[in-house]
Automatic annotation (TrEMBL):
The keyword Lyase applies. One of its GO terms (biological process) is prosthetic group biosynthetic process. This is Apo-citrate lyase phosphoribosyl-dephospho-CoA transferase. Pfam families: CitX. The lineage of its organism: unclassified sequences, metagenomes, ecological metagenomes.
Length: 185
C-alpha cells in the first residue's frame, strides 16, 4: 500500500472514530510492533533498531512525524551501513515506524543510537530503541548513559510524560518549530 493512501486511510479513520476506538487502535499497533520485533529477533538473532517519532496525542500520522522518522532512518542507515541486514519502513496507527536489523553487538549499537538522539537536531524528537539478539530492549542505563531529558524543560523526560507537565499543544508547537527549522537549513 502506498504511503499516501495509508496516511489518508488512517486520517479518515481518526476523523470518524471515537477517542476510545483511536486509543484501542494505537494500543493494537504497539502490540503489533512488539510482535514484529519479537518475530524478527527469533528469525535473525541480531540487534534490532526501531525508530519512532515522539509525537503526542492519538493522531500520529503527520508530516512532522514522517519527516522525523525518515531523516533519522537515513542517519541510522549511514551510521550502520555496512552492518544492515534488513530494513523496514511502515506507517501504522502508531505513526511512522522504521526497523533495521544490524549485525553488530547491541550495546555498541545502543551507544551510537543515543549519539544520534542527542546530537542530531531532530534526535530528541524520536525514540531510537535498540533490542539485543534475544529481542530484549537495551536501556541507556545498561550502557552507562543518563536518562533522556525533556526537550521543553530539561527535567527527566519520563517524569514529564507521566505527570503531563506540558500540554499537547505546547509539545506539538515545539516539535513543529524544530522540524520546520531543520528543513529550512
Amino acid at each position: 500500500m502506498k504511503i499516501e493512501h495509508c496516511k489518508k486511510e488512517i486520517k479518515d479513520y481518526y476523523i470518524n472514530c471515537k477517542e476510545e476506538e483511536g486509543f484501542n487502535k494505537l494500543l493494537y499497533a504497539r502490540e503489533e510492533r512488539a510482535d514484529l520485533i519479537r518475530n524478527l529477533s527469533e528469525k535473525y538473532k541480531k540487534t534490532i533498531i526501531c525508530i519512532r517519532a515522539n509525537y503526542p496525542g492519538l493522531y500520529k500520522i503527520n508530516e512532522e512525524s514522517i519527516k522525523i522518522v525518515s531523516i533519522l532512518l537515513d542517519e541510522a542507515k549511514e551510521a550502520f551501513k555496512e552492518y544492515i541486514t534488513y530494513d523496514l519502513y511502515n506507517i501504522t496507527y502508531e505513526g511512522p515506524i522504521a526497523i533495521l536489523i544490524i549485525d553488530k553487538p547491541s550495546k555498541e549499537v545502543k551507544k551510537r543510537a543515543v549519539k544520534i538522539e542527542e546530537l542530531h537536531p531532530l534526535g530528541r524528537l524520536a525514540d531510537i530503541d535498540v533490542y539485543d539478539e534475544l529481542g530484549i530492549g537495551i536501556s541507556r542505563e545498561e550502557v552507562q548513559i543518563a536518562r533522556r531529558r525533556c526537550f521543553l524543560c530539561e527535567n527527566e523526560a519520563h517524569s514529564c510524560v507521566r505527570s503531563k507537565a506540558h500540554s499537547l499543544e505546547e509539545i506539538k508547537h515545539y516539535i513543529n518549530k524544530i522540524v520546520e527549522g531543520y528543513i529550512k537549513e
